[in-house]
Amino acid sequence: MNFFQNLFGAKPGSAAAKKLALEHHAKGRAFCDTGDFDKAIPCFDEALRLHGEMAKAYRDRGIAYLSLGEDNKALADFSVALRFDPKDARAYWNRGIVYRKKHLDREAEADFRKARQLDPSLKRDEDEE
Questions:
Q1: Across 107-111, average pLDDT
Q2: How far is the CA of 19 from the CAs of 8, 12, 26, 29, 47, in angstroms?
């Protein structure tokens, strides 16, 4: 390991970085689980710095942004998550929520439909009425 890697940690993209990224992601999820979304975002940021193609970190950071009312950032993260993992039902579902909040009903319905296709257990409140 060279001097800079010792000084700054794992090299982004390396196996060590991917392992650290998973640890930062898990820490971010733990903050989300307790409602500390503002503390979760830097954890997801670090996970993505270390492993920029981590779809679930984009999705979960999007959930944190959505919970904080930062809809545009959430929408961007859900869309990137879907580029890396087009079978992520939760990313479609949450992007559908953002679209619905923005009154983009056609886009919202398409995402909800795709999410339910990938995971039939997903239901909106109005689906159960």
A1: 97
A2: 15, 11, 11, 15, 9
pTM of the model: 0.86
Q: How many other β-carbons are positioned within 10 Å of the β-carbon of residue 122?
A: 16
CATH number at residue 52: 1.25.40.10
For 14, 21, 49, 54, 88, the CA distances from 115, given in Å and listed in that order, are 32, 26, 28, 19, 8
**Cα–Cα distance for residue pair 113/73, rounded to 1 Å:** 23
- Does the residue 5 lie in any domain? no
pLDDT at 97: 96
> Which residue type is seen at 82?
L
**Number of compact structural domains in the chain:** 1
Question: Pick from 13, 12, 117, 73: which is nearest to 60 by CA?
Answer: 73
Dist. CA 13–CA 19, nearest whole Å = 10
